[in-house]
Amino acid sequence: MRPGPMTAPLLAAAVLFSGLVGCASTRALPSGDARTVDALFRDYDGPDLPGASVVVIHDGQVVLRRAYGLAELEQRTPATPESNYRLASLSKQFTATAILLLVQDGRLRLDDRVVDVLPGFPPSLREVRVHHLLQHTSGIWDYEDFVPPTQTVQVKDRDVLTLLSRTDRTWFAPGTAVRYSNSGYAVLALIVEQVGGMPFARFLHERVFVPSGMRSTVAHEEGVSSVPRRAYGYAAGPTGFIPRDQSPTSAVLGDGGIYASVVDLVAWDRALESQALLLAETRRQAWTPPTLPDGTRSRYGFGWFVDEDGGRQRLSHHGETCGFTNAIVKYPEQRLTVIVLTNRAGGAPWTLAQRVADLWLGGPAKEGPASARAWPFETLPNAH
């Protein structure tokens, strides 16, 4: 039976209450203690290093929450679990959720042609449908391919339509193959604006962040919104870390412009688990990759990489952008989620997240010697 409607304040209060309960009861590591995790993050733990925040959620409870290094080097501001990092491509699961909320509202269909929904979408791409964008099966070019290295003015989501008009073809017939494209998620943000009747950042705030209890998360627009407890991005230079917080594509929201903390991402994880936003069937669709016409199985659902790790369904995503590298790994059946956010370019947060997950899973899944146990994004062309 479908539950009755719940107002946003009541829903936020329910999620917040569950978060307080979860934080009040913390379990110890099955093998060892928090020093096991601290050792994994030693390269982020120093008085002059860009930092990291990590959280482990098991059976609906926060079982470990740590932070290392600095959120801002210049002011020597320590990273904390409340530090807000640019999520980069971890943002895509929120963009996908916004689309799915419109589908649940009956205002949009996954099979709608984008050209029929979004004014200004290039007519040469008329066979691209909404679900193609979500699943990276559209074949549309990545807008970053058209941004010159000399670009100084930041690109925004609306500019992506102009950049896409520079080509009159797709990489392949929509729906026949997979090619990761940030353009698809910028276009999805524009669809949310068009169908939702409000700016994308506002839609996320009102329909996703507030109902989930994500009190400091923001789709950041310079001069419009601010980021509380903001972590700033850095990259390794010849003599140490140097500021590297923005690039010409940092202002595109749909593919990577959300800032959040691991504290707020706990609330997000609980909203997913409790079906506070998405109905069970909608969530199942988001976590089910398509089968392509040639019979091969994709490894991308709606905003999530999806694969099997030793027979266990694994959801994951990585995020790389100017000065930030992040990862999330989630095992729905085991009710285990690990999130790692860092404010530096490079590193391997996805490897760290998997190693932390393995501590709770009792070790890596046993696989045949031919398996490299690669994360699914390593198999997709042009994945970031």
From TrEMBL:
InterPro entries: AmpC-like (IPR050491), Beta-lactam-related (IPR001466), Beta-lactam/transpept-like (IPR012338). Keywords: Signal. Gene3D superfamilies: DD-peptidase/beta-lactamase superfamily. Residues 37-348 form the Beta-lactamase-related domain. Residues 1-24 form the signal peptide. PANTHER family: BETA-LACTAMASE-RELATED DOMAIN-CONTAINING PROTEIN (PTHR46825:SF9), D-ALANYL-D-ALANINE-CARBOXYPEPTIDASE/ENDOPEPTIDASE AMPH (PTHR46825). This is Beta-lactamase family protein. It comes from Corallococcus soli. The lineage of its organism: Bacteria, Pseudomonadati, Myxococcota, Myxococcia, Myxococcales.
